[in-house]
Design goal:
This protein is α/β, with parallel strands linked by helices. The protein is built from 21 helices and 13 strands. The protein has two domains: about 270 residues, 3-Layer(aba) Sandwich (Rossmann fold), CATH 3.40.50.720; about 200 residues, N-(1-d-carboxylethyl)-l-norvaline Dehydrogenase, domain 2 (Orthogonal Bundle), CATH 1.10.1040.10. A hairpin with a 2-residue loop joins strand 4 and strand 5. The longest helix has 24 residues.
């Protein structure tokens, strides 16, 4: 058995607290920050926070908070040991310790990857869901549970201590994510302390970002292979593709941030065109392929696009339905971006499982697919492929695949979604379209969309995902 990876962690004070220390941030943002420190210095070490369970902390602590990031390229694998973490806290065990870390004078940025559902908002409107159980708890208790609750209570502690606010840097796949998180934080702060909300509104910064790197789930086989490659055992590695991109609105409290532009981060005045490009072209087609590919019996995205039917399907999505609805970001060729995505999807070294991408569809579809559908229909453009993808999500959410086998649906609305399934596709569609937290009013009230969605769902039920995708 190889020796365990071990590192003597730095005792320098952290400059960043990161909420939601999952694989994506450790394979993306943490690497950029480590490289920026190596290039230009600065005390930007990271205290990670798990908002749910101690698993990540317990795996990283014996390793001195170090871990290996393994690049999975078509031509081979390249490991990199990342040593930017200073500590990992587990919020349910000691929420006060998390608040203390966020309120420390050395901390100038709090970043987040808590997934769409972690913001306790209504995806269709972007506003705080004040009835969310965690938000109700946070309104009644000084020690919070939710990510917005930690942000608000920590900002209050900084104000009371006479400190400047930290910059809130969202790294989740939400359109205009900085604007959304700012709105959620201000909504919650107004309910707790209107004066605090005014201080945050006047002094705080919530830059929007676009993040891009495919990070598949790590398997035991990955860990065994990595041990053979490096000669040490790492219980918390992350896998990632070679490609990476991080576009950040250059809006930080007092300008305090790592020297990110020196390591390839694009600092811009307006992230929105980049967000729309990535959310709709990458995340939208990822979700489309995940649902249809899963129903058709494919395990991963690379397996799915190796099927010529789905390769042609996703190309039609890009060329006919998604690109016409986008304004290209400065310096970007959307056709070339689609070609690059196709190559990334086909990378056989990336085992990005369809079930992983399919999780939390009720939270993801509004940003990834439904906005494109609404804009396309308003402009008189046909969107049959994206409509089929929504129908595939509905069929997936029923809890049974095309062969009648049970599907474990992971979604905050899973019980409600399963209860909406009916023998009559039109009744099923009617029930789903009534979900105001998922579908915008423009689509809920669009009889033509309901008819197209019903036809797509009926086709999936009778003919199957592959046959329907071939007809798009």
């Amino acid at each position: 058995m190889p020796d365990r990876l071990n590192h003597a962690p730095s005792d320098a004070p952290a400059g960043i607290v990161h909420l939601g220390l999952g694989a994506f941030f450790r394979a993306h943002g943490a690497i950029y920050i480590a490289e920026a420190m190596q290039r230009s210095g600065g005390d930007w070490g990271i205290v990670g926070v798990s908002l749910q369970s101690p698993g990540t902390r317990d795996k990283l602590k014996p390793q001195g908070w170090a871990y290996t990031a393994l690049e999975l390229g078509p031509q081979g694998e390249t490991p990199q040991v990342v040593t930017v973490l200073r500590d990992v806290l587990v919020a349910p065990e000691n929420p006060q310790a998390v608040l203390d870390a966020m309120a420390a004078p050395s901390v100038r940025i709090v970043s987040l990857t808590v997934t769409e559902k972690g913001y306790c908002h209504e995806p269709s409107t972007g506003r705080l869901n004040a009835d969310h159980p965690d938000i109700r708890h946070d309104l009644e208790n000084p020690l919070p549970k939710s990510a917005p609750g930690f942000l608000v209570r920590a900002l209050a502690a900084r104000r009371d201590a006479g400190l400047r606010p930290f910059t809130v840097l969202c790294c989740d796949n939400l359109p205009e994510n900085g604007h959304v998180v700012r709105g959620v934080v201000l909504d919650l702060a107004r309910l707790i302390d209107p004066d605090l909300a005014r201080w945050i509104e006047a002094q705080g910064a919530f830059p929007s970002t676009m993040v891009d790197r495919i990070v598949p789930a790590t398997t035991p086989a990955d860990m065994d292979r990595l041990a053979s490659l490096t000669g040490h055992r790492d219980e918390a590695p992350v896998m990632h593709e070679p490609f990476r991109q991080w576009v950040v609105e250059d809006n930080f409290v007092d300008g305090a941030r790592p020297d990110l532009e020196k390591v390839g981060v694009q600092l811009v005045a307006d992230v929105t065109p980049f967000e729309h490009m990535k959310l709709r072209m990458l995340n939208g087609t990822h979700s489309s392929l995940a649902y249809l590919g899963y129903l058709a019996g494919h395990e991963t995205i690379s397996d799915t696009v190796a099927d010529p039917v789905f390769a042609a399907f996703v190309d039609k999505l890009w060329r006919s339905e998604i690109i016409p609805a986008l304004t290209p970001p400065p310096g970007e060729d959307l056709g070339a971006y689609a070609d690059a995505l196709a190559a990334r999807y086909a990378n056989p070294a990336i085992r990005h499982r369809n079930w992983q991408i399919a999780m939390d569809g009720s939270q993801k579809l509004p940003q990834r697919i439904l906005g494109t559908i609404a804009e396309g229909r308003a402009a008189g453009r046909a969107v049959p492929g994206l409509t089929l993808a929504v129908a595939a999500w509905m069929r997936y959410a029923s809890g049974q695949d095309e062969k009648g086998a049970a599907i474990e649906v992971k979604d905050p609305l899973a019980p409600r979604l399963a209860a909406l399934w009916r023998d009559d596709p039109a009744d099923t569609v009617g029930g789903f379209l009534a979900l105001t937290e998922v579908f915008p009013a423009t689509l809920r009230d669009d009889a033509g969309f309901a008819a197209d969605l019903t036809a797509a769902l009926e086709g999936l039920t009778v003919r199957g995902a592959r046959a329907m995708a071939a007809d798009v």
